[in-house]
């Protein structure tokens, strides 16, 4: 580059640096991660800042766009507790609030953090062994019994069970205090969340800044997940165990993460209803019978895991799970009782317990905590009430205004007095803690960097080689300038954590060494619930397509400037079908056909509309999120946007026609993904079976409506339009639409991919490939029914088809749907449930 060019480039970088740092002022009395006490950028941040300054504002925005598109296209989302609509899991889902600035931590400092987190994981693991084992710490007076037994997370039935509270994954929420030291704000031992979001943050920012990621030698995360998976495998008695991730379901706050981790780690994502206790072992209900579950990584609270011995109101757990653990037939991670050591009441005792159990002082200290269940500590809290944060001692503790952390000094005088009275009366339910001012880190906002308070969640996993700490973590950043605690609620964003190394970092993959891979061509176990959801996903998508075809056919006739004879009758028939199918309001058949078409496109109040059908498809898909690709979720987003009228504006008939046409193209793209990208395993089969059944039923209904003995040529043309068979018909017959050729094409022609006969042939092939419960040579009900349908299609003649015979085809298809559900989705409700076999 010429000298003059280098000068201009250097000047522009300096100008961008000045612009980014303009007005960046650390908060008074707070440590800042980016700027030191002298106002200089900390050395380990300089490579990052230089990399940003090398990019023009437009280039920087393009990089941000790459990260944001990754988040949007992969559907990264979360929920806030209580923000739920059971009818539509998409309602209440919030896009992941990614911050584009990572938290940068140098290697030397990270080693101290990792050592402290490892020590703490060892301490809590040892403490759990004693709590659910000999109980020596309580007997010796080192730990008050009420700190353990007063916690709702202490599960008495787990006492004496090997691994009752064992830790497999631990997380610590850290904050840096004004003195520059890292402090532990909260221990996470129940079912720590955030590891999957940390991985997504990494993927997003690595995509946006790949050059900086390489040049700064950022530590990789894959080795941590590799170690965690190896730890779960080694905890089982079998060489190739079946590992299941137990989720509360799609309405859980972090369901996206659970589905993502199940797919990433190759685990089976299950809900409580997918599991069954049989002969002392836990099994997964699958389409091939019961399959043993060796390891369960739970993401539900421990007391909800077994309604038989723990919380009888739970609908999330598995009856008999505690007994299976008691007999050593299943490994549960984390142990069901592990949440007891999350209690804030315990934090004040941990320094002494560390010296007792480990012979060491804590590397990472707690924030100072006083449990008010002790007279002296309670009095200390009451004497200094205005200086402290008051919080529940145990999960679910406190009430009213103090059900979560409150800064007592900021409460009105009357509320503070009431809080004092509650502490005096029920001291064991409360702790007092020092008010912690969190450190700040930079956030890009308003075209420059600004300081915002943050916390850091760090993860440790038990592996065959000991505890392994994730070299990074889950950083949460508050939009409030004076945050005392940060959780994923409004006004909070998240970012990646970059741990820099002095040397190039090794590339790590989750794939095993090639010589250790056993080649297989079968995807694996398919739980009955997943098969059920895939089946109905196919049906809802096809149902939405049928409605869109009806809408397009209706609007096409309304805007046609050259109407054919019988057009008005056809329009009335099309509009009537929309009403009959629940896609348009009932009792309003006299409304203008265009208004009915509009309702059939957009209305969520009418259960059969295109928008409602596709909402149901998305709700169903959310239950099998781990089995769908990023492209599939992108298409769901496209469909949702297409069927969401802008500003409530009613489109013209021509615009509505185009909207229906574009939505049909998106559905065709989804179908293409399934046909070209999905492995032909049992999951694909159930998706295809659902589509074939729904398409066959819809075609029968179209034929009954538009192909009676008095059908006009325009009605027959409508039938050809609805079954996408116009081109095929015109290429075979030079004359206009005629009843018997049309019926043969849409009902009986096995070469027409839209005909009923073609759907039946595909159903026959897919059902024949599904597993059977018993090898006795007997045909199961779905196979018997589909063979009858296939025989009827092959032997029927078009001249004999009328409304009655077409209705019989439709009823047989609906009967086949019920038989499939009884056999594969409701295995314990019928006689075939008793034939289920347990396969180890």
UniProtKB/TrEMBL annotation:
Occurrences of domain Circularly permuted ATP-grasp type (ranges): 102-477
PANTHER family per UniProt: BLR2978 PROTEIN (PTHR34595:SF2), BLR5612 PROTEIN (PTHR34595)
Ranges of residues in domain DUF403: 526-825
One protein family per Pfam: CP_ATPgrasp_2
Taxonomic source organism: Bosea robiniae
Signal peptide annotation: none
Organism domain of life: Bacteria
Name recorded for this polypeptide: Uncharacterized conserved protein, circularly permuted ATPgrasp superfamily
UniProt-listed InterPro entries: ATP-dep_Glu-Cys_Ligase-2, CP_ATPgrasp_2, DUF403
């Amino acid at each position: 580059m010429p000298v003059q060019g280098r000068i201009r480039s250097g000047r522009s970088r300096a100008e961008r640096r000045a612009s980014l740092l303009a007005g960046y002022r650390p908060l008074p009395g707070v440590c800042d991660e980016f700027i030191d006490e002298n106002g200089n950028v900390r050395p380990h941040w300089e490579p990052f800042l230089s990399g940003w300054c090398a990019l023009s504002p437009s280039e920087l925005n393009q990089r941000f766009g790459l990260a944001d598109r990754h988040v949007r296209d992969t559907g990264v989302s979360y929920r806030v507790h209580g923000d739920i609509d059971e009818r539509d899991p998409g309602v209440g889902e919030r896009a992941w609030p990614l911050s584009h600035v990572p938290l940068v931590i140098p290697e030397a400092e990270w080693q101290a953090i990792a050592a402290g987190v490892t020590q703490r994981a060892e301490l809590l693991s040892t403490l759990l062994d004693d709590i659910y084992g000999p109980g020596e710490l309580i007997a010796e007076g080192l730990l008050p019994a009420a700190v353990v037994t007063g916690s709702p997370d202490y599960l008495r039935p787990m006492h004496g069970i090997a691994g009752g509270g064992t830790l497999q994954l631990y997380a610590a929420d850290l904050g840096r205090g004004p003195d520059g030291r890292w402090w532990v704000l909260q221990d996470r031992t129940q079912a720590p969340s955030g590891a999957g979001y940390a991985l997504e943050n990494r993927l997003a920012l690595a995509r946006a800044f790949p050059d900086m990621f390489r040049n700064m030698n950022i530590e990789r995360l894959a080795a941590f997940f590799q170690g965690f998976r190896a730890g779960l495998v080694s905890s089982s008695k079998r060489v190739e165990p079946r590992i299941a991730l137990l989720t509360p379901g799609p309405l859980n706050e972090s369901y996206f993460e659970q589905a993502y981790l199940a797919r990433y780690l190759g685990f089976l994502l299950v809900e409580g209803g997918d599991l069954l206790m049989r002969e002392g072992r836990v099994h997964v209900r699958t389409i091939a019978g019961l399959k043993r579950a060796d390891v369960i990584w739970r993401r539900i609270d421990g007391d909800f895991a077994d309604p038989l011995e723990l919380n009888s109101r739970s609908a999330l757990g598995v009856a008999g799970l505690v007994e299976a653990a008691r007999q050593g037939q299943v490994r549960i991670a984390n142990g069901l009782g592990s949440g007891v050591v999350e209690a804030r009441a315990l934090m004040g005792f941990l320094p002494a317990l560390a010296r007792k159990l480990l012979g060491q002082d804590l590397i990472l200290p707690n924030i100072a905590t006083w449990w008010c269940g002790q007279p002296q500590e309670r009095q200390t809290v009451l004497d200094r009430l205005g200086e402290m944060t008051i919080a529940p001692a145990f999960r679910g503790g406190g009430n009213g205004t103090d059900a979560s952390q409150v800064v007592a000094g900021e409460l009105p005088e009357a509320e503070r007095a009431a809080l004092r009275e509650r502490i005096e009366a029920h001291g064991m339910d409360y702790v007092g803690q020092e008010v912690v001012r969190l450190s700040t880190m930079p956030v890009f906002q308003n075209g420059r960097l600004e300081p915002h308070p943050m916390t850091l969640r760090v993860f440790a996993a038990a592996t065959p080689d000991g505890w392994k700490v994730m070299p990074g973590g889950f950083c949460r950043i508050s939009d409030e300038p004076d945050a005392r605690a940060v959780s994923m609620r409004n006004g909070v964003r998240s970012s990646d954590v970059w741990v820099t190394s002095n040397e190039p970092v090794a590339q790590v993959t989750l794939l095993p060494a090639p010589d250790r891979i056993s080649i297989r061509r079968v995807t694996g176990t398919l739980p009955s619930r997943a098969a059920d959801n895939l089946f109905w996903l196919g049906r809802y998508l096809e149902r939405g397509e049928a409605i869109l075809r009806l809408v397009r056919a209706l609007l096409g006739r309304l805007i046609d400037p050259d109407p054919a004879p019988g057009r008005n009758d056809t329009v009335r028939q099309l509009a009537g079908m929309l009403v009959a199918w629940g896609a348009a309001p009932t009792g309003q058949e006299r409304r203008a056909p265009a208004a009915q078409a509009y309702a059939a496109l957009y209305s969520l109040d009418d259960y059969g509309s295109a928008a409602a059908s596709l909402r149901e498809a998305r709700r169903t898909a959310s239950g099998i999120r781990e089995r769908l690709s990023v492209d599939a979720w992108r298409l769901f987003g496209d469909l949702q946007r297409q069927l969401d009228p802008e500003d409530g504006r009613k489109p013209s008939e021509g615009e509505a026609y185009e909207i229906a046409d574009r939505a049909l193209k998106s559905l065709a793209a989804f179908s293409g993904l399934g046909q070209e990208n999905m492995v032909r395993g049992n999951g694909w089969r159930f998706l295809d079976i659902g589509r074939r059944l729904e398409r066959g039923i819809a075609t029968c209904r179209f034929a009954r409506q538009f192909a009676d003995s008095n059908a006009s040529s325009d009605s027959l043309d409508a039938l050809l339009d609805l079954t996408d068979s116009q081109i095929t018909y015109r290429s075979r017959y030079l004359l206009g639409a005629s009843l018997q050729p049309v019926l043969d094409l849409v009902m009986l022609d096995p070469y027409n991919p839209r005909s009923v006969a073609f759907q039946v042939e595909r159903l026959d092939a897919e059902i024949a490939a599904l597993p059977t419960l018993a090898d006795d040579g007997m045909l199961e009900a779905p196979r018997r029914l589909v063979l009858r349908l296939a025989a009827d299609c092959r032997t029927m003649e078009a001249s004999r088809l009328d409304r009655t015979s077409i209705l019989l085809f439709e009823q047989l298809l609906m009967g086949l749907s019920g038989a499939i559900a009884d056999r594969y989705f409701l295995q314990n409700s019928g006689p075939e449930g008793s034939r289920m076999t347990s396969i180890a």
